[in-house]
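Hi R.,

As promised on Friday, here is the backbone we talked about, encoded as structure tokens. Could you run it through your design pipeline when you get a chance and send me back a sequence?
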């Protein structure tokens, strides 16, 4: 009789590799198995679907480093390889400026794991030597977990960017508002307590909510960003400056107009206070993405919705509860003042949308 044995790939591995390809991550198989076995598994996983070829360790041995450097992008499967071959493959990919992650479980994988930018050891089947050489250990030995970690990392980085864009843009707007009024010889548009309220209450909770924003649906369809590029790229700085400068222009203009319209100083200050806070709220929703319109699933972040509702409640109390007027220097605003403040505050949305439109067309550099 004849007995056949197979160690099939996990069902989720093929989909995980397809997600990697969409995310701009190239997956390569390096194995000690027979070439026929390696190619069969690679075809099953879709590794050879894009025209990649398979070579053996003997063929790799005959290649010079220059030849490997030229051909490494075309090779998807390496079979019957030795630990030295794995080191050469990792080095060839790194020579192209790529960030290389290497997985392994045996002692012979340890040198390549150490050389790779991210060495990943198997937590269940991996040896102690392999785990020691690796930078990360998979507790479930599942390739799909690596893909999930990449997605999580991209989401965390994106949320840090949203958090900083919102907070720094808000601070820019407040600084320019106060500086502008001082340079023009005007009274201060906000009291110290109002500034403290804006910074601690109005800015704080929405910023924290943005740090928990759900990831974009196309997050794993974007190419990897340059790891040498920080958060403050030209597009990010542009969005921050546009939001901050427009906020300052609108609020300073409102304050000047309110004073010249015959309103008392406390009413003018309260209108500016309300307008500034509302602009921050609109910016929080707009900064949920630096590339998509604010109309794309605007209320998908439930924590941001709760934060905004809470802050609006606090704002109404500060404006209309008489006991708080002296502490915050606020004034009982009539309905028309709210209409004016809201109408001016909402102008931040088309301004930021125009900035995003220009960013999508590469006016200020590529959006990472």
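Update: got your reply. Pasting your designed sequence below so it's all in one thread:
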């Amino acid at each position: 009789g004849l007995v056949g044995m197979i160690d099939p790939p996990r069902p989720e591995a093929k989909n995980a590799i397809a997600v990697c390809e969409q995310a701009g991550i190239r997956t390569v198989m390096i194995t000690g198995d027979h070439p026929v076995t390696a190619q069969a598994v690679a075809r099953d996983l879709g590794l050879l679907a894009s025209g990649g070829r398979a070579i053996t360790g003997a063929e790799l041995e005959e290649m010079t480093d220059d030849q490997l450097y030229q051909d490494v992008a075309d090779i998807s499967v390496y079979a019957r390889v030795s630990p030295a071959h794995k080191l050469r493959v990792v080095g060839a990919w790194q020579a192209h400026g790529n960030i290389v992650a290497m997985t392994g479980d045996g002692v012979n994988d340890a040198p390549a794991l150490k050389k790779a930018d991210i060495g990943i050891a198997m937590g269940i089947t991996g040896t102690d030597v392999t785990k020691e050489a690796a930078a990360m250990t998979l507790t479930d030995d599942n390739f799909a977990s690596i893909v999930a970690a990449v997605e999580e990392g991209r989401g965390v980085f994106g949320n840090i960017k949203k958090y900083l864009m919102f907070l720094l843009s808000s601070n820019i707007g407040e600084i320019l508002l106060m500086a502008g009024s001082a340079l023009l010889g005007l009274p201060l548009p906000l009291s110290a307590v109002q500034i403290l309220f804006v910074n601690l209450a109005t800015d704080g909770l929405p910023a924290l909510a943005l740090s928990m924003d759900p990831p974009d649906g196309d997050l794993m369809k974007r190419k990897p960003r340059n790891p040498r590029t920080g958060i403050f790229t030209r597009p990010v700085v542009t969005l921050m400056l546009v939001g901050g400068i427009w906020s300052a222009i609108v609020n300073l203009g409102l304050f000047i107009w309110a004073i010249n319209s015959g309103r008392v100083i406390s009413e003018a200050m309260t209108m500016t206070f309300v307008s500034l806070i509302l602009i921050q709220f609109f910016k929080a929703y707009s900064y949920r993405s630096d590339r998509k319109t604010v109309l794309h699933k605007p209320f998908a972040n439930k924590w941001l919705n709760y934060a905004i509702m809470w802050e609006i409640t606090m704002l109404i109390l500060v404006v209309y509860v008489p006991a708080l007027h002296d502490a915050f220097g606020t004034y009982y605003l009539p309905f028309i003042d709210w209409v004016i403040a809201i109408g001016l505050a909402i102008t931040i949305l088309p301004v930021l949308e125009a900035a995003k439109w220009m960013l999508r067309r590469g006016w200020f550099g590529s959006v990472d």
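One thing I noticed while checking it: The CA atoms of residues 214 and 301 lie 6 Å apart.

Thanks again,
M.
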